[in-house]
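Example 3.2
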Amino acid sequence: AFAAYNGPGVETLVKSAKDASHATDNTPVELTGYLVKSLGDEKYLFRDQSGDVEVEIDNALWRNIEVNSDTKVTLKGEVDDEWQGIEIEIDSLKLVAQ
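Structure, written as tokens:
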């Protein structure tokens, strides 16, 4: 586990799929919406009111959490700008009380 300063700073927290898909590498992200599709290999399609973005969720983060495309979740992580495109590397996954 890594600890870090979590207060306000220079970086802006991105809160929408649309903004996350255009953000720079390592930008912190907090998305609330739905995982609508498994893309295989720990990758999922996340959707909120602004659009879709690909996220990567390590299998260890699931901890007996079950979701479907109707389950609202909050994902925290950061932008990972790789040669094949932007994806969001997720550090934490939380169910949103409906």
